[in-house]
Amino acid sequence: MLKTPIAILGSGTGSNARALIEQAEQRNYEVKVVISSKLSAGIVHVADAAEIPSRTVRGVGEQFVDEILSIQSEFSTSVLVLAGFMRLLSKRIVEAYCGNVLNIHPALLPKFGGKGMYGIHVHKAVLEANETVSGATVHIVTENYDEGAIIAQQQIALTDTLTPEQLQQLVKNIEHTLYPSALESYILSQMK
Ligand code: GRF
Questions:
Q1: What is the mean pLDDT of residues 86-104?
Q2: pLDDT for the residue 120
Q3: Which residues pair with 156 in a beta bridge?
Q4: Which of 29, 116, 122, 148 has the fewest CB atoms within 10 Å of its CB?
C-alpha cells in the first residue's frame, strides 16, 4: 500500500500523536515528522520514543509559517495533522497543504468551539451547560477557529457526577481511535 506522508503539529502531551503513530502501521498514512510549537512538549518525547524525527518551531507570524513550510518540503508531507495545536493556522500554510489540514476538537462542533475553547475550558463549558452528550470532532482546518467542514464525530453520554477532568480523559480515549480512522477515511476520499 502506498502510504500518504503526514506531519503532526502540536504542543501538548502528545497522546493523539502517539495514537496516530501507533496505528500508522495498519493504516494508509506514514508519520514522517512531528512538529512541536513548544520546547520540550510531551509530543516531542512521544516522537523520540517512536524514533520519528521531530522539529521544534519557535518563530512567530511569518517566520513560523516559513519554518512549517520548510519542514513540509524537507519531509515531502501532503497532510498536516494538528493534535493539540492551540493557535490559528495561517492561510499560507493551509494553501501550501492544498487544504489538507485536519484538526481534532474535544467537543461536538459546532457547539463549544471558537476562541478560548481549548483544553479543560471546553469540558467545563459542556458540563456547565448541562449537556447530555459530548464527544470529539475531526474537521478540516481553515484560517478561522474550529470552522472547517466536519469529517467525523463520535459521541459519549454524560452522567451527572462527571468532573471536567474525567470528561477530558473520556474524550481523549475516544479521540485516540477516532482520529486515526478519520484520517484514513479522509485520505481515501481526497488523496487519490
Ligand atoms: C486534545 O484533547 C485535542 O482534542 C485538542 O488538544 C488535545 C491534545 O491532547 N485539540 P494531546 O496532546 O493529544 O494529549
A1: 94
A2: 97
A3: 134
A4: 116
Which residue in this structure is represented by grid cell 480523559?
A: 169
Inform me whether the pLDDT recorded for 1 exceeds 80. Answer: no
Question: Whose C-alpha lies nearest to ligand 1, atom 6?
Answer: 84
Taking the centre of ligand 1 as the mean of its atom positions, its distance from the CA of residue 84, in whole angstroms, is 4
Is the Cβ–Cβ distance between 20 and 3 less than 8 Å? no
Provide the CB-side half-sphere exposure for 112 (13 A, CA).
24
Q: For residue 172, give the ligand 1 atom closest to its CA.
A: 2
Distance of CA 134 to the CA centre of its chain: 18
First to last CA, the chain: 13
Length of the chain: 192
**Residue 175 C-alpha to ligand 1 middle, in angstroms?**
8
Query: How many other CB atoms are there within 10 angstroms of residue 37's CB atom?
Result: 22
pLDDT, average across residues 126-148: 92
Which ligand 1 atom lies nearest to the CA of residue 175? 4
Ligand 1 centroid vs 139 CA: distance in angstroms? Answer: 14
Q: How far is CA 132 from CA 118, 126, 143, 148, in A?
A: 20, 9, 30, 25
**Using a 6 Å CB cutoff, which residues line ligand 1?**
10, 12-16, 83-84, 104-106, 172, 175
127: helix, strand or coil: helix
Point out the residues that are catalytic.
105
For residue 86, what pLDDT band results from cuts at 50, 70 and 90?
A: confident
